[in-house]
């Protein structure tokens, strides 16, 4: 099957088995412009990465370079630029009152998931329209959908799910960078940026599934 046909099949299985609140989103990081798939136009506004995920979850497809990313921390997490120094040091989050002192803020930010390699751009698409093999698929769902996906992972691993998140850099670091780096699956409860700017609802959470793990998750969904 073509990538599009496979993605359409996977999307249908997800919709039939998981309580989705919107479309699953496929993303692919591009090392150069030459890797850009046909049929994807440059987004015509400057917004946050998490807003781009939300747009794709509502049916839009497009690509972005660093020039269209308005959140520098998000762009840094997904490999489009270096992380801004004040974010990397924890100073920014300490100034926002998220940590009791700068030392604690630095300790937390050093553990955030950040893609170290530099990429030229990133493609966003609803999974059922993606003509490429995704690096990561992001699923926005209610907790009951997260439960079902957790059960699919446990089904073949026999191990507990161990989410990695801190309530900051959610759709960028937790849901994209973490699965991309680990080749696994990660669960995240969102952050202020994604809930305010990208309208992630109070009753929604996000799961990021690496392209390497996607076939196994889909197979397990059908089995349980």
Explain this structure.
The chain contains 10 helices and 6 strands. The chain has one domain (3-223). It has helices at 3-17, 49-57, 72-77, 85-88, 91-95, 102-109, 143-157, 170-182, 192-197, 211-223, and strands at residues 25-30, 62-65, 121-126, 136-141, 185-188, 205-210. It is α+β, with helices and mostly antiparallel strands. Helix 7 crosses helix 10. It comes from Methanobrevibacter smithii (strain ATCC 35061 / DSM 861 / OCM 144 / PS). Pfam families: DUF169. InterPro entries: DUF169.
Number of strands: 6
Largest beta-sheet details: 6 strands, antiparallel
**Gyration radius, rounded:** 17 Å
Structural class: alpha+beta
What is the count of DSSP helices, taking H or I runs of 4+ residues?
A: 10
The low-pLDDT segments are: none
Question: What average pLDDT do the residues reach?
Answer: 95
SSE sequence, one letter per element: HEHEHHHHEEHHEHEH
Write out the strand line-up for the largest beta sheet, numbering strands in chain order. 2-3-1-4-6-5
Q: What is the count of structural domains?
A: 1
Fraction in beta strands: 5-15%
Into which percent range does the helicity of residues fall? 40-55%
Q: Based on CA inertia axes, which overall geometry fits?
A: globular
For the termini, the CA-CA separation is 24 Å
Organism: Methanobrevibacter smithii (strain ATCC 35061 / DSM 861 / OCM 144 / PS)
InterPro entries: DUF169
Pfam family, one: DUF169
Protein name: DUF169 domain-containing protein
């Amino acid at each position: 099957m073509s990538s599009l046909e496979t993605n359409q099949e996977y999307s249908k299985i997800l919709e039939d088995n998981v309580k989705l609140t919107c479309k699953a989103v496929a993303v692919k990081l591009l090392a150069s412009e030459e890797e850009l798939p046909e049929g994807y136009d440059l987004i015509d506004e400057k917004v946050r990465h998490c807003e781009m995920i939300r747009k794709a979850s509502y049916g839009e497809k497009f690509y972005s370079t660093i020039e269209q990313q308005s959140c520098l921390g998000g762009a840094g997490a997904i490999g489009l630029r270096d992380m801004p120094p004040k974010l990397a040091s924890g100073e920014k989050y300490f100034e926002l009152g998220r940590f009791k002192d700068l030392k604690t803020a630095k300790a937390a930010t050093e553990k955030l998931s950040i893609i170290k390699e530099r990429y030229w751009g990133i493609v966003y698409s609803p999974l059922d329209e993606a003509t490429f093999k995704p690096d990561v698929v992001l699923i926005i769902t209610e907790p009951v959908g997260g439960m079902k996906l957790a059960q699919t992972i446990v089904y073949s691993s026999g191990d507990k799910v161990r989410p990695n998140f801190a309530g900051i850099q959610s759709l960028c670091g937790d849901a994209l960078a973490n699965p991309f780096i680990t080749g696994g699956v990660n669960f995240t409860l969102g952050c202020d940026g994604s809930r305010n700017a990208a309208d992630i609802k109070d009753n929604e959470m996000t799961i990021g599934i690496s392209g390497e793990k996607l076939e196994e998750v889909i197979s397990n969904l059908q089995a349980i």
